[in-house]
């Protein structure tokens, strides 16, 4: 690749990864390589269809380079966007997925377009000194069978994770500045510099730990769940626990965030992402959205009985999903489960 | 009917109702009338098949009289056994189901072969002065398509509910004694006089409020749930709350009950009754098993955040079931639900 154009690897071809790939390829003057795990052949032949409030409607779009896996990439990259689900309890934790390309690209920045809290910790431990950024976005977008349906304009906060292993902060900050400029498209999206990444992640957890988890457990859309009184009876008490854990962690989530998040899907028969994952028999981001806050609660001695209940119920859901997907095989005679991965 | 043979009405042809009907008809010298809501025609023609550890294996058994509904009965009865599910939130609360026959049978005793606590309250209010008894049984038995599969011998505790509206206690006690004698079959079942009905019901809630509810929410059998750690992480903390509420209510559940109930289904890929109800899209006994203890917790000021979380999640499950069954119809345009019953 020419030296003067930044190279970006986007790992994960979900809705979020595709909006990022399109934005950077078409507006950011980058060379974009997209890793497409499923549908690789079809994507190579037909590309993607966009029905996008931001980019318009068109078919046949492809990123400059398409690869079937991270192992199939050969170059050094300037930016590595991770837009796959974060499943430390699954067969492919994020550090395993990106290890080769990160080691090959010592000057790259890794940007995590993912939910949850403490998600940088395993990466900082495995890649000390490497720049790791956070992308927290609110986007109402799906990718079903290579059709990207984007109902809201992209709005994303990008910042540096707190990282004691970084010695050269100036370089990290200049990488951050460069990425924000590449990603920003004047008048089309909102890209802001996130000065307090951890607070942003606590804020988003207000939604993800309450509405996402409860609808996933029962597999019911937000309108019907609201009729059942779940905001008052389940979400608010869970959110109280999130506020208390965040506070013990040193972060004051603004009080207005509670109503803002609770009203986000008002009037929509909306099935939140975790609910959809359960619908389709896919693993959920349980550990980063519920497990990590709960581990902090234990560490800080903050009572969180409701979050704890939700967590252990969702662990059972996760087990079911993994057994159905063949990730766990049950020795029925002995009543003993075996993981099919390490 | 001849005056000298007691007449028993069994309302509900589930496993429990059928074991009772068979025991009383064949061994208790009673005239048994069974109310069969579903399968009435087939039962009249073919009767039931028993595969019973207690009674043996045979086909074509019928009770003396079969009725399609309580409204179809005309006689006065000595005993009215209620063996339908207790669903105060459904279209047919127990008091509505049995009102006609209770009013026609002023000297009868009503015996509730049902789970949960405070289940006598609506009946005492509606039928003051009427004798109401409790039957708490542990029986591993199913009735699927008129095949009664009974794996344990019947073991039941029968007693009088506390009831301030009863003036003539001697008569109530003689009814109780008569019923226990009718139901007992020497060497075949265990029928004991329950001196403390409410404590028996608290004891059974240890199982029903923990193992039954959590497996129902996630729809997972007991062996797999145990592998997920649900006994330690979910059941024991919920059981702690049940013990505390019972204590505030004046009842000390013996401590050994916890392990006894938790080990009841060990080694079995067993799906508890509430889990099976959800599997088959049937309403669950949420109010009598979880709602009533929770209302007591509020009344006594006992914290019960885990039971509260489980309750509100199961309310959403109940809503889903009711909408699927046509008991609730959603005006999708307006986002407003309508009950199809009062």
UniProtKB/TrEMBL annotation, chains A, B:
Domain (Ketopantoate reductase C-terminal) ranges: 196-318
Function text: Catalyzes the NADPH-dependent reduction of ketopantoate into pantoic acid.
Membership in a protein family: Belongs to the ketopantoate reductase family.
Protein name from the UniProt record: 2-dehydropantoate 2-reductase
Entry GO CC: cytoplasm
Pfam family, one: ApbA_C
Keywords carried by this UniProt record: NADP, Oxidoreductase, Signal
GO MF, one annotated term: 2-dehydropantoate 2-reductase activity
Alphabetized InterPro entries for the sequence: 6-PGluconate_DH-like_C_sf, 6PGD_dom2, ApbA, KPA_reductase, KPR-Related, KPR_N, NAD(P)-bd_dom_sf
Organism of this sequence: Eeniella nana
EC number: 1.1.1.169
Cited NCBIfam families: apbA_panE
Example GO BP: pantothenate biosynthetic process
Coiled coil location: none
SUPFAM superfamilies per the UniProt record, alphabetical: 6-phosphogluconate dehydrogenase C-terminal domain-like, NAD(P)-binding Rossmann-fold domains
Catalytically driven reaction(s): (R)-pantoate + NADP(+) = 2-dehydropantoate + NADPH + H(+)
């Amino acid at each position: 690749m020419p030296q003067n154009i930044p190279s970006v690897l986007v790992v994960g071809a979900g809705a979020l990864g595709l909006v990022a790939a399109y934005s950077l390829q078409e507006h950011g003057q980058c060379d974009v390589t997209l890793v497409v795990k499923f549908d690789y052949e079809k994507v190579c032949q037909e590309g993607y269809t966009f029905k996008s409030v931001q980019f318009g409607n068109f078919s046949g779009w492809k990123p400059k380079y398409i690869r079937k896996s991270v192992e199939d990439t050969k170059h050094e990259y300037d930016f590595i966007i991770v837009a796959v689900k974060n499943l430390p309890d699954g067969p492919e934790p994020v550090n395993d997925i990106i290890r080769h390309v990160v080691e090959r690209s010592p000057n790259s920045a890794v940007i995590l377009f993912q939910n949850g809290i403490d998600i940088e910790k395993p990466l900082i431990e495995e890649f000390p000194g490497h720049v790791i950024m956070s992308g927290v976005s609110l986007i109402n977008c799906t990718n079903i069978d290579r059709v990207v349906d984007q109902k809201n304009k992209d709005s994303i906060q990008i910042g540096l994770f707190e990282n004691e292993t970084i010695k050269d902060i100036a370089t990290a900050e200049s990488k951050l500045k460069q990425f924000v400029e590449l990603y920003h498209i004047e008048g089309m999206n909102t890209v802001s510099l996130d000065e307090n990444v951890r607070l942003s992640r606590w804020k988003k957890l207000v939604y993800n730990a309450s509405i996402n988890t409860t609808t996933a457990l029962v597999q019911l859309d937000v309108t019907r769940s609201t009729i059942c009184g779940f905001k008052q009876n389940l979400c608010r008490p869970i959110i109280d626990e999130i506020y208390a854990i965040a506070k013990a962690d040193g972060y004051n989530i603004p009080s207005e965030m509670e109503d803002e998040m609770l009203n986000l899907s008002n009037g929509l028969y909306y099935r939140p992402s975790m609910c959809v994952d359960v619908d389709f028999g896919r693993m959920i981001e349980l550990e980063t959205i519920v497990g990590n806050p709960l581990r902090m609660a234990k560490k800080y001695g903050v009572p969180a009985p409701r979050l704890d209940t939700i967590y252990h119920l969702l662990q059972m859901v996760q087990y079911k999903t993994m057994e159905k997907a063949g990730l766990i095989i049950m020795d029925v005679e002995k009543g003993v489960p075996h993981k099919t991965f390490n």
